[in-house]
Amino acid sequence: MTPSLLLLIDGAVNGDNRAVEELVRHTRAQVALVCRTLGSGDDVDDLVQETYLRVFRSLPGFRGEAASFLPWVLAIARNTCATEVRRRVRRRQAVDRFRAGRHEDAVPGPTSPAELASLLAGLSSELREAFVLTQLVGLSYDEAAQTCDCPVGTIRSRVSRARVQLAAQVRADDRIA
Questions:
Q1: What's the domain count of the chain?
Q2: For residue 166, how many C-alpha atoms fall within 13 Å in the half-sphere facing its CB?
Q3: Which domain holds residue 1?
Q4: Degrees (nearest 5) of the Cα angle 111, 107, 121?
Q5: What is the pLDDT of residues 83-127, one digit of tens each?
Q6: Pick from 14, 48, 122, 176: most CB atoms within 10 A?
Q7: pTM for this predicted structure
Q8: CA 151/CA 57 separation, integer angstroms
């Protein structure tokens, strides 16, 4: 990690608002991309804000020698999105159970606003995370492995499987159209 980044982290821990703003400025685009892709398009700003609340709450415990800053922040963003997705699924399941008890149709799933989001939604969460972090956010396989807390080989395998599945989805969509 660069000395200037360490100074910014130290400043943010000690309440320096300029340091906080600089850390957000350096990571916001990547955090927003992760939240937009792994979360819901409707709540991206809320997910980004919640991510940074968690980041700055946890910053005093950040160990710069154990991991670089961006993968650490993106791991928090990923976990924030996963928490939100689980919350929505539980809420949707509760609504479905309620409606099923009243013999009404189940609540339809959300529709995707973009073709990419639709394609990515067809992947398992593990494949989607690895693909998004390496192919869209631009992390190296090593950084993505740190972010996902798994071996580099696992990330490589997940990205490869994601590519195969995405290609198959595109071919299937082309045949239908």
A1: 2
A2: 18
A3: 1-109
A4: 35
A5: 887 777 766 665 555 445 443 333 233 333 357 777 888 899 999
A6: 48
A7: 0.62
A8: 27
